[in-house]
Structures are given as structure tokens and as C-alpha cells.
Amino acid sequence: MSRLQSPRFLLGLIALLTAIAVQPGDLGSIDTVRRLQVTHWMWTSAPQVAPGDFPGFGVPGRNGKIYAWYGIGQSLLMLPGDMAATALTHAVPALRGKYDLRGLLLTYSLSPLICTLAVLAAFRFLQQLGFSIRQSVAGALGLLFATTFLHYTQNMMENNLLLLLFLTGFGLQYKWLQTGSNRALAAGSIVLGSAMLVRLTTALDIVTVAVFMALAIWRSESNSTRIIQRMFHYAKMCAPSYILFFLIDRGYHYYRFGQCCTNYIQLYGQQQRIMDPTLPASFPYTMPFWQGFWGPLITPEKSIFLFDPLLIIVAALAILSWKRLAPHLKMYLGCMSILLVTYIAFHARLWFWAGDVAWGDRYVTTPVQMLALLAIPLLLRHGPELGKAFRSVALTLVCISVLVQTESIMLPAWVEFRQMRTLGHPTLVIGLRLLNIVGLASAEFSEKNLAKNDASVAGGTSSIYLYPFQVVAEARHVPRWASLGFLGAWMLLVASVGVMLRRLNVVLSTVPTRTETWDSSMRLVQTQPAAIVPEPFH
Question: Domain segments of the chain: what residues?
């Protein structure tokens, strides 16, 4: 099959081109900049915390040195790119002094790679769950264009990396469930375990996958002895990887702070209380639990239903089509919903429960996106049973989701965060973002919606938050004629995404439909393909 006839190849190409098109030319977050500083520390004499960053960031550790409080996972991932960018600046004297070069190269290489791999992993995972090629492609495109995944493709925080590890690890372990491949199970355990180096709370992801696998084994086996044997085998294969990565994380923590049974939130709280004795002894766990719990659900600043409206479709389809859902999909929806609630409850007491400067609640993106991933595939499968009115409403929500995510890449995430210092709470962030985009397009910001005394907000958003537009607006690095050529190349890139989407539509219209059932072991049983239906893909 020609590559341009392969839905998988076209999907990956669309993801890659989209990820390149949405880059801002910088890392998008001070958190990622600080993790890159740790990367530089790994192989040079640079400190872990940049001079002047402390005491706003960093915790005093062993030998009186200041250490970053983050996990080491994302910093390790950026190591090859950092070394290459540093070598390039030494090899080309004209590039010296361009302090943003490392961020520029990383954002145009590593972020598109993560995006492409995650979209392909989502496509494969949906097929493992029994969805057709068309439905799986639609779900993967929904993840890319209609969830906060798009924002974190532009803003290179650790969210998309965590989703990639979760999708890949879960998919590999699910392959063991379907095929009995021990190699897949071991590889999946390594991938899931490595996520703890990025963020230790991903241990919750590991537990959730283990619960799903236990339920699947329990349902697929009728003999209790066999159930115990398979569960023991699963634990025996997974435990070494999980223990290894946990010990690596604890070893790194001990290297920095001389402790192994604490976490950086505790150390951060101790440091802040020393600097400000008026803080309560429980700081930073000072938020009333129910306020922090309901915050990600109902507040206009951070509600997951506003930032990821596909969740509404998933919830409605789960309720209305529950009896028709395959058993493994019921278990999947239940496990991901419990994981979401657990994440919300885990962070509810933190005074920064929402992740502060972020598009939505960045602490819960993995379970949110794993649930939203099923929205369009389930809609394509069960929508016809629910009537035209339901499909119309659902399609409207899909369009709204795409618009919300498009908004997210037009301006930096910190714009509305700063504005709310003046506007106060509650503030409908996605509505305020729309006003800001309109203001930017008309070359002025409405004083009603802009912090009047915060000139850095207006000054920092003089152009669309996409690198070609910023180059044109600020004439950075290159002459005017070259920057305009760069903008023209970007427009061609966006047009190529449209061409590839059209090509994918044509290819999918020739893919035969199929009837699918599942046996008691949750293995997909495929009947003879039906006749090819020239149905356009939407």
C-alpha cells in the first residue's frame, strides 16, 4: 500500500505538520524553561536553578546548594536537544548570544515528535478497544484538534509527554491481555514506570491500569485458579519496572535534599513558612477540600467541561448507550472516571489546585484526555441509535471544542491569568480569551477586560502567539523580507494540513466497514468485511 493510501501514515503526517504549525518559538512555560536549566546542569557546570530565580523557585538542599523541585524525566528527554543546540551555537559564531536558540530548536523538534507519537498511539489504542479504522482515526483527530492536547502541543509542559507514556504503556499491557505477549507486558511496564520520573503522581495511573487489567482477567477467566495465576504473573512482570523507577526517583530526591520519604511540596511548604512565618502550619494544603474538589468541575476559570467539551459527549453517550457498550469499554470508562476523581481529590487541598498559569486544570489532563478520546468514536458508533437531534447537539459540541482549542493557541496562557488579578473571580476564561483575540485583531485591548496597570499583558501579546507572526511583528533574528517569507511558508504548511485531511477523507471513504463483536476474553472477533460504503469522513 502506498504511504498516501495509509490512514496511519496520513494521520501521523497531519499530527506532525500541525504540531510544527502551532509552535510559538519558545518553550511556552517558565516551568519548562526551569526544567531545561536542569538539563543543562546534567552535562555542564551550570547550576540547577538559574541565578536570580531563587527564592521564587528552588529549594535549599544538600551542601547548601539550591535545587529544582521537579522530577527529572522531562529534563532527561530534553538532553539530546540541549546538547545539539549548545554545540550548534559553538560551531556557528553568529548564533552566539541567541539565548532562546535552545528553546527554539527544542520546541520545533521535541514537541512535534511527542505530538505525532501520541496521536499514533491513540489511533492504535482505539483499534485495540475494538473501534474501526474510521472511528479510530476520528478519535485520534479529535484528540489533536478538539482537546487541550493541542494547547500542550504548543506549550511544551509535561502534559503531552505523560499522555504519550500512558497511552503507550496501557496499549502494550492491553496487547498482553489480548495476545499473551510477555514482551509487550514488560515493555508496557517500563513505559508506565518511567512516567514516575516525570511526575510521581503517575503512580495513580499505574494503579488504574492494574485495576483495569485485574477486572479484565477476572471477566475473561471462569476458573478461580487461572485468575489468580494470571494476576500473579501480571504483578510479577510489572513490579520490577515500577520498583526500579520509583527507586530512581527517590535516589534523585535523596541526592538533592538528603531525604527519601518526603516530596517537593512538603519541602516547598517548609521553605515558604520560614520566609513568611504568618503562613499556616498546613501550607500549601490550605484550600478547603470541597472548594478545591468542585473547582475543576464547575468554576468558569478551570472547569474541565469548558476546556474539554468532548467530556459532555462522553458522559451523555455513556448514560444513554450504557447497555449497548462492550464490557471492556464499560470498565475503561469506569476506571478513567475514577482516576479523574482521584486526581481531583488528590490536589483539592493545594492552594494552587488548578496549576495556576495553565489552559484549564493541567493536573488532570491525562484522565480528561483519555476519556475525551472516546467521544467521537462512540458518537460514530452509537450516535445513529440516539436520533438526529442528539447528533446535531453532539456535532455542535465538537465544533465548539475545536474553537476552544484554537483559541488556546492564539495567545499565551498567562494573559487571562494576569487579567484576573484585576477582574477577580469568577471569570469565564474562554470568553475572555475570545475578547482578547478580537482586541488583538483590532489592534487594541478593551480596558474593561484588560488589567489597566499591567502593561506587560498588552506588551507581551502584540502578535498572535505563533512563531512566524512573532517574527514578523518583532523582526527578530532576520530581515523583514525573510520574516515575510517565513510567514508565507507557514501558510503553505497550514494549507498542507488541509490537503492531507482531504486526502485522509478520500482514503477512509474506501475503507470497508466491518461488524465487530468481542469474546469473553475481550478479544476482538471480526466478521467478513461488508461492502465498501462511499461514506465521507467527517
Answer: 148-262, 284-409, 414-508
